[in-house]
């Protein structure tokens, strides 16, 4: 079992860590970006402490030219000679004599570029309604890109305060982390905007944004809160403002600490590589993650915005106020913010049942964590590339899932007290994972560190195999690591597994709680078992495999299970099927039991399995798969109909759209396709006449059945969409057509400038997963690889390549390609994609020859 002694230490990355002989405490930054030349000039004065006499100062700098450097103290000035090391991303300033220990001021003048790679200090642009182009300069510094904007000690532990001044054109707006202090005209059409000093924080949280922006009036969220956007989009801000205010106040109450900044701006950026970035006081977002028309956006699209805004607001405390010491602990930021976004959105919209839908995210993390190529949540980070590669589903979703499992085991209020203690104790400072466990152990009196080290510091997760003892009044539980691919040995890994069991015996229904830490355990139920459910509430990060008699009893008592528990049953059974632990025919028989299912998340599990089957199916198998989809989903859809009903929940409305989309695409149901076309035209005439939650389904179905005329129509709609959600809807629809010649046009669109570089990799990802286009898309990707890697954001390329999991007929070719083309941030992600491809190939090898028979006859 993993323990704290084996945990990756913060000091592991010694080759890239800066020396500690000089440390900063305050930066005065003045930057002058030129949006025409895409360059900037800068100067900074840094208050530093020389901890031991030295004749050189080493800090981070990348893609910068440093023109002058000096150190001053007590009227003395020492000129420095600058040596840049691009490989180590450092600047070394050498002085003719040693700087004595004590307080000094370091002064630098430097120059840089506004790059087009969506990191560091970069450029963005947008076109207004008249077709005029407007330019923006903005920042994205996490993980290690502040060094591209100004020379700095670019490590999270080296916190400092920042006072920023921006010199810009008079007609432009400027935003930074703190509120504006003053503004003065400089002449020649330029002005200087000076901001207040920030709190003590890490470099990666600094932000400055310049461009033509409008904003909402400030509202009280415990601090003034605004939504900032490019002109013309003020009507799309209300939803984000609502959840922004609610979640910020919610977190202040939950944490027991006020918001640490003096204002909060939520800023929509036209070009943005990720979803959002938690810069203190100046959170930046992709437009789709912040702006929407709440009258036309689907519930799922609204949920996405609520999630992202809440996630970033949670970071203002968990990440910004208290920060991990080194990048190995980034999960302390991201997993907790993911956990907190669920809490806040669930409190805001309880009817959304957000923790139940989080089970889908938990299952997605398990799909990666069941691979040999997975990693522990926390691993050693040595280089900047290592740090950037940490931002994946294991950091976010697995991390959040194990926190939820712990919260449910300890109790919600006990957990909250531990978190509040952690934040109070470490505010404005840096921590490691053990600090969190110690804070949670204090109010709970539980061995939190012992429990959680097994989940944080070792890869994978357990599958609990359960059977009835011979006497029938007890359960025998055995844990082993779950793998999708066969292993020669199951290994010696063990977890401390908090298990919640609900069982019905001849004495009634009771809940049991136990911590399984050994290979095997036995639970006395206190009576003869009629049925038993492991993972009550669905919060445990483990799979369950029931002995046949127990599984049969559960499936005969589905009505006794909560929706999230039914989801777990379907998800666990499907995972066992993909792993070869059970035949596909068993899963298909189970799926047919769910025709009366009403929960959206259970349907997501079923439809996800059907989509996977579509990926491995041959053309000859597809009619059998369509028949299965019609049998299962077609029995449920008529109960919901096509029209929203009075007093209907939002989740029911969303489920209607999901089922209609499945029937019209995978199910290839002509009647559904005809009705979708009729409703789409009605929707075009008057959007109020069609339920907004089936609008995405209508677009999907019309793309699936569409011809060249429809393709041209959707292209126009993509380019002229009035909201970010409609733009995204129609853009991805261009990858959902079934005619190869149309899909080739979409491929070309990713490189000819019609699609933003932030979006193009994800569009190609969709093309790789389209069973009609996948091999053409693969050839296109290989042919244009050099262009793509040069133009597109580094962080998006590994995610684009996830689509290779569908290239079942090209496995050897795919492996050879990635052996020859190493990706800067690919590393483990590419290994995982290749292993998932191998899993799919193995599944088809086992089930493919008899797939049609299985689908029809099970």
Ordered list of secondary-structure elements with their pairings:
Blueprint: E1 22-34, E2 39-50, E3 54-60, E4 64-73, E5 76-85, E6 90-99, E7 102-113, E8 120-127, E9 133-140, E10 161-169, E11 173-176, E12 180-187, E13 190-195, E14 208-211, E15 214-215, E16 219-220, E17 224-229, H1 238-255, E18 264-269, E19 276-277, E20 282-286, H2 299-315, E21 323-324, H3 330-348, H4 354-369, H5 384-388, H6 393-410, H7 412-426, E22 430-431, H8 433-444, H9 448-456, E23 462-468, E24 474-481, E25 497-505, E26 508-516, E27 520-524, E28 529-534, E29 543-546, H10 548-555, H11 563-578, H12 584-591, H13 600-616, H14 622-640, H15 650-664, H16 670-685, H17 695-704, H18 708-719, H19 724-733, H20 740-749, H21 760-769, H22 774-783, H23 785-791, H24 797-800, H25 811-820, H26 827-847, H27 851-857
Parallel strand pairs: 1-10, 17-18, 18-20, 21-22, 23-29
Antiparallel strand pairs: 1-2, 2-7, 3-6, 4-5, 4-7, 5-6, 8-9, 10-13, 11-14, 12-13, 15-17, 16-17, 19-20, 23-24, 24-27, 25-26, 25-28
Helix pairs in contact: 1-2, 1-3, 2-3, 3-6, 4-6, 4-11, 4-13, 6-7, 7-8, 11-12, 11-13, 13-15, 14-15, 14-27, 15-17, 16-17, 18-19, 20-21, 21-22, 25-26
